[in-house]
Amino acid sequence: MSVTLTIDGRRITVPEGTLIIRAAESLGVEIPRFCDHPYLEPVGACRTCLVEVEGQAKLITSCTTPVAPDMVVRTQNTSEGAAKGQRGQLEFLLINHPLDCPVCDRGGECPLQDQTLAFGPGESRYIDPKRVYEKPIELSPQVLLDRERCVLCARCTRFCDEISGERFIELFERGAAEQVAISPGEDFASPFSGNTVQICPVGALTNASYRFAARPFDVKRGDSICPHCACGCSLRVDTRRGEVVRHLARDEPEVNEAWLCDKGRNAFRFPDRDRLETPMLRVPGLEPASHAEVFAEIAARARGGARAAFLGGARLTDEDAYAMAKLVRTAFGTNDLDHRLGVGAGSWDLERMQAAPGMPVTYGDVERASAILVVGLDAREELPILHLRIRKAHRKGGAKVFVIHPRRTALDVAEHVLCPPGGEAAALAELRSGSDEVATALREAGDGLVILAGPRLAESPGALEQAASLAADHGGRIAYLTRRANDRGALRSGAHPALLPGGRRVDHEAERAEVEAVWSRPIPAAPGRSTKEILEACAARQIDLLFLVGADPLTDFPDEELVRRALANAGFTVIVDVSLGEYEPFADAAIPAAAFLEKAGHLTDWEGRGQRIGPVRDPVGLSRPEWRIFQELSEVLGADLGFGSLEDVQAELGGLLASREVTAPAAVPALADAPAREGLTLFTYPLLVDDGRLSVDAGELKAALHREPFLEAHPADAERLGLADGDRARIRTERGEAELPVVVTDGVHEGAVFIPYNQEGLRMSRLLAGATIAPVEIEAVEAEAVAGGAG
User: Which pTM value belongs to this model?
Assistant: First the structure.
């Protein structure tokens, strides 16, 4: 239903339940406010948004009052009473405010400054000494509090209560003594804490990484998309003299709303550290060279049917990944190309669906769902903004949320069903045929069911098919989620050993012919090697040219031993990246690539939503976008890709994606129960704040949220092993051993132990043999030492 009312003499019709302040905004009328925020519940805490409503004896707060039929509202523009009330409230808020704008980080972009200038009294009548507090209070290594600036709007505490659900900070005391505070001895250890800084309407909360770093008039601003995960959050990048000083969330109602996780906000220095600025060639040591020299050397080694393979693409733009896929198949004549560096290959049928245009599941679908099943995904650690939207679906829409996982996640609104690592397929099969509370809730949800299938399902045979069939059984929807920023775009662009752009199969003659007609060159018909198979082929000296394109297999692939053998035995290794890092000893050639904030293109989030990015600054040194590198290399190889501009790449890729549809995979029969495993099973995945290359120099972030390596074990397993919480244990796998502190918790499945994948001090890829699930032996370190001494 809609409601018609009058605001400042202008008639307007808005949906029933709309707040007066929102109705005024739709007319372009700005009403001053501090506590109001479009994604927070109204509280009327600051009393600044006063308006006059005909028939009401007193002024009312427009941020808490919904519209009514034929209501007549007068804002400060047409009511002297409203204007006087606002001036008085602003004067009251400024009584104890320090007015230290010249040194405040909010100075120049402060709502209190702006609204005082626009609506305030112009001068203060208060002449007594102002209230003073100790400053700053370190709520965490990331967030600092200057309490004397606080106007008690409660935005920060409401965000923690309503949005993140992590109530670290609260309003303490009452009356004139009321203040934002945190319990003694606690840190604001939330991965969403930076949002409280951004929505603070004054300079009370500041970010340690930006404090005194720059002034608003001293930075250059540019819009981009966060490169850290597949959430696709809209980002504002601030640079000072070319160096990144801050990331801020941009409002994007369809994706991240107004939020950003702390990793996206504070891990921003990687484009400015250890950059590769010029092409390099090993002669015999790595020496600076020209692009022409490097391309000529690659071309010389590619002659005579040389065997080439490419790894990477999940952090490239869609256009870069497409140019790479075309180069690999037309210039090198191979399908040995894979962007999936983490866990093993998933279901090709599901990947074909993800590669097709369109968005089978969106953030909006999640928010509107009546039941959400999260399986094989730790949402807060892997896709944090999706975690917030799942919480919102429960809080706002009453959605029932269920999680199938070997470990209890931070999704506190969900009912968790713990399963053994790799046992997700059996758990899903049981849901399809079961009649328990979870199965009944999913069945009753019907087309309101959304299944979010995470990357762990790739290591549970049949799990993706079971998830797809469960969704089909009830008329629901399914999304297969991966972690990296452009996994979906790389897949859609054809950076896959068996799938061409749009999900076309290389071994399907008609589908392959569609791409050959556009490329005007033949494409090999047999599917290529996966990441693991490429590495094994390199280790066996069966690859003459290995390209690592924005890839970090030493960290990301769960078998560092195999990766090192592959790098050592590959005939000629070419690194295309923003930096060399630990790959310098293995590189025979290196080509500098532009960072995400230095190029244009598109990134595709987990939904399938393509979002445009643009250059915030010029490329560093001789770096350039990957599509241009591949275009120039193709010319030297005699297989011109035909891309004279980025628009040429976009037009060709867009043509291949247009009207491309892929049908859902057929239902599969329920699986038999998975065989019981003997002994303990290790499983691992990365936490949000790990030791990855994109977190370099993110000191504040790591100090606040990084955890030392640890091992989680079920109480029954710990008791059997003679371990207590806080003890140290030695673990042994096929590849090696490590000592770790033990966390005893019933939040992991009995018989399973969890260790974070890539924490500083322990790179788990050194202990794994190609999978993130492995048998493991555990013993107490202290017990062994005592036994050794007694002997």
Answer: 0.94
